[in-house]
Amino acid sequence: MMAIETLALRTLLTVARQRDGLDETRCRMVLEFLDAAGSVDGVLQRTLTELGLTEHKFSILVALFALDPAAATPADLSVHTDVTRSAMTALLDALEARGLVARRRDTRDRRVVYVGLTDPGRVAANAALMDYLRTADKLAQGVSPADQAALRQSCALLHESAGQFQPASASPISP
Question: Which pLDDT value is given to residue 6?
């Protein structure tokens, strides 16, 4: 059930019901999934905001936490976090300004920079991971183990379908 049945949602479902080749039930399922995902994402984002983190900064801390005590190059972090290399520098600058990460140059090749957690960064990363996971755990408390398994299976099917998706030919909307 959608949190709020908006005019847009009602219109989409009415069109899905009226047009040939569309299944209103499947359309509703995807729209309800998006609505629930947006609600869950909003709660998790608020958790990060309370910690003074963005999703990208958090993902960098998680990657560094996973690699600790080893350091990583910004390029490696880009791969692990799905953050572009161009955005990585500014994000690392912000984390370094807070004392959470430190950069050091490779002694053999001064062009290479390594990034690692500082001692306060380890403490902060651990606390952030725990807060984030506690929030995720609390969000799922009311979902039975059977429903959790069904949701994971449904998500896997949606991922598979999205990976094979070929958009229908559509004309751009004219102004």
Answer: 85
